[in-house]
Design a protein that fits this description.
- By secondary structure, the chain is an alpha/beta fold.
- It has one domain: Cytidine Deaminase, domain 2.
- It has 4 helices and 7 strands, in the order H-E-E-E-E-H-E-H-E-H-E.
- Helix 4 links the parallel strand 6 (86-90) and strand 7.
- The termini are far apart.
Amino acid sequence: MSIATAIARGSTHPTVPGGCVLVRDREIIGDGRSILCSSKVEIDCITYAIGTCAKRGTPTVGSVIYSTRYPFSTTVFQAHLMGIRRFIITAHEWEPYYKDEFRRAARLARELEIEITPLFPDDDPRFAGNPHEIDEFDPKDKTDIEQDDKPSV
């Protein structure tokens, strides 16, 4: 995901830059970034990455998409046609302009049995500390542990 984030920095989209990496067998087979052309045509980072693989002739069956943006519905269908069954995306708030489109994409992914997994970049604060740290009530060595083999009366 760090490579997709680095690619997103090179995006020309002014409001929602995005980066994407296609991985198969722990090998990067394609990458893409979001582009907003001067003609106001938006090219999604996932579409760009799938197009890169198609241009190179690289098979994508069984690969995983790592993206910093949520996929559009057309992208989900492209992934279905290319044999991609899993998206891992950076979890963040949806852009309000694209909210309905993202809902359609999620519905289509459910119908096509494509997994969209959010990846949270921050650690969950609920699990930041260890609740089982050793304190004064825990035994220090084996002699502090009571033996249960004493006969009962």
